[in-house]
């Protein structure tokens, strides 16, 4: 019954893991405020969530836009008086060699996955600290523990999230606010629909379901765990990397080597540099 009448803000609640979390937590009695950019999808989720939790709401918000986040947080705090738990789940991903990835895509990934969580936490923390209570749950990834081929921008965003979360943990614990990170292996959602069949494919043992991720999120909140890595195989791989980093990197390189594109990247056109045209 721990979640009854708890106000839980979930970013990226219109789809995938966030949607499942919204439904599961509403069923446990929480008041869910969810956000996303797709209003039609949010409306669908709201119908489902309100069956269990009539006071729940969905709000259109791009978490990569600090102004929109400020507006959303102000509305939720005004409507419910507090936010007990913030779940930073909104995220985007892309698998592509880094040199071929436009900087705009790198920026979008960092802005959504990392800065989006930062903006939300920055807005909600003063009220949590004032009450001496609260929990911030950051949905990270196995890609925040282990660098993966052709996922440099995504891994960068999730490693950043993990380092930020670890630092926040120390800063906030004495103030009564808990921090958790959840690092799942690949989950079959819309997130990776376009690249899940590209090589190198994720080993079947590392794949998890949205339901399993949600169970672990709920357990992490209930038991106040800092870090959860799932499935167990991924946790074992992370332990292997931690204890034998050189051997791990050697074996990973051997696995990835045949998938590295040997073709020179296409020139990105005639971009001006600082000194071009200054004769
Ligand atoms: N699927 C995986 O393999 C996997 C594995 C490990 C970790 N994760 C992490 O789990 C989280 C959820 O991913 P998922 O698999 O559930 O993906 P998903 O099915 O694509 O859902 C992503 C959610 O994030 C929202 N979102 C994306 N950009 C946003 C933005 N700028 N502002 C607000 N909302 C935004 C989407 O809503 P709108 O489109 O309506 O904005 C959607 O609700 C992500 O952080 C992801 O990195 C995923």
Strand order of the largest sheet: 3-2-1-4-5-6-7
The main pleated sheet reads as: 7 strands, parallel
| Span between termini | 72 Å
Q: Can you count the beta strands?
A: 7
Structural class: alpha/beta
Task: Estimate the global geometry from the Cα principal axes.
Answer: globular
How many separate helices?
Answer: 8
Description:
The chain is of the alpha/beta class. The protein has helices at 16-27, 39-52, 66-80, 103-131, 152-172, 210-223, 232-243, 245-257, and strands spanning 7-11, 31-36, 57-60, 85-88, 134-139, 177-184, 227-230. It is 47% helix and 13% strand. A 7-stranded parallel sheet has the order 3-2-1-4-5-6-7, sandwiched between helices. Strand 6 (177-184), helix 6 and strand 7 (227-230) form a beta-alpha-beta unit. The longest helix has 29 residues, at 103-131. NADP nicotinamide-adenine-dinucleotide phosphate binds next to helix 1, strand 2 and helix 4.
Quick synopsis:
The protein is an alpha/beta fold and 279 residues long. It is built from 8 helices and 7 strands. Helix content is 47%, strand content 13%.
Produce the secondary structure layout.
Elements (H helix, E strand, L loop, with lengths): L6 E5 L4 H12 L3 E6 L2 H14 L4 E4 L5 H15 L4 E4 L14 H29 L2 E6 L12 H21 L4 E8 L25 H14 L3 E4 L1 H12 L1 H13 L22
Parallel strand pairs: 1-2, 1-4, 2-3, 4-5, 5-6, 6-7
Helix pairs in contact: 1-2, 1-6, 3-4, 4-5, 7-8
The structure holds NADP nicotinamide-adenine-dinucleotide phosphate (NAP).
